[in-house]
Specification:
The chain is α/β, with parallel strands linked by helices. The protein has helices spanning 6-15, 23-35, 38-54, 71-74, 89-98, 125-133, 151-164, 189-197, and strands at residues 56-57, 64-65, 82-86, 104-107, 142-145, 170-173. The strands form two sheets. It has a four-stranded parallel beta sheet. The radius of gyration is 22 Å and the shape is globular. InterPro entries: DNA_Rcmb_RecR (IPR000093), Rcmb_RecR (IPR023627), Rcmb_RecR_Znf (IPR015967), TOPRIM_dom (IPR006171), TOPRIM_RecR (IPR034137).
């Protein structure tokens, strides 16, 4: 593709590196930015720079935060007896959007994946154990493993269960089964099998 400007070409190449954005979409976005007032584009640039340089990881749960401790860890309205272990920040956002969980989180920063060379030492597992051994651990009664039901996710959950056995805690996992509005005939065998095994009483 021929560009009328090398600067536009450079901008398109950078924007197209974002996930899910091809060259055509990148060009459309770049041309849109050119049409906007210069101060609006400057605000966008400043916001991106501030995000990249000032956003940090919470020292306790490893969620993204503007401060050393995130707003969830510092809130006195959260249930200190519950810690939900998740893979990354996107999972925290998804669970928070349900407004059903009022406990704390612990973000692993990934899952165990030998194929990708990711082992337990590459994740925030030791810091979870340290939390449970510290003063905070005295209040914790349950650990919820909210990890994706993939082979790597199950491997990670199994490893965590073994590590957490040393503590007098209830270890649970999120329910897995047929989604609401789903048809049984379209459910895969593993999901349907787990739904049968994890059946609940009909109230």
């Amino acid at each position: 593709m021929e560009y009328p400007s090398k600067l536009i070409e450079d901008a398109v190449n950078e924007v197209s590196k974002l996930p899910g954005i091809g060259k055509k979409t990148a060009l459309r976005l770049v041309l849109h930015l050119l049409k906007r007032d210069e101060d609006q584009t400057e605000i966008l640039a400043q916001s991106l720079t501030a995000m990249r340089t000032r956003v940090k990881y919470c020292l306790k749960c490893h969620n993204l935060s503007d401060h050393d401790l995130c707003s969830i860890c510092t809130s006195n309205k959260r249930d200190q007896s519950l810690i939900c272990v998740v893979e990354d920040t996107r999972d925290v956002l998804a669970i928070e959007n349900t407004a059903q969980f009022k406990g704390l989180y612990h973000v692993l920063g990934g899952i165990i994946s030998p194929v990708e060379g990711i082992g337990p030492s590459d994740l925030q597992i030791d810091s979870l154990i340290a939390r449970l051994r510290g003063p905070e651990g005295e209040q914790v009664r349950e650990i919820i493993l909210a990890i994706s039901p993939t082979m790597e996710g199950d491997t990670t959950a199994f490893y965590l269960q073994k590590k957490l056995k040393a503590f007098n805690l209830r270890i649970s996992t999120i329910a897995r089964g047929v989604p609401i509005g789903g048809d049984l005939e379209y459910a895969d065998e593993v999901t349907l099998g787990r739904s049968i095994l994890s059946r609940i009483a009909y109230d």
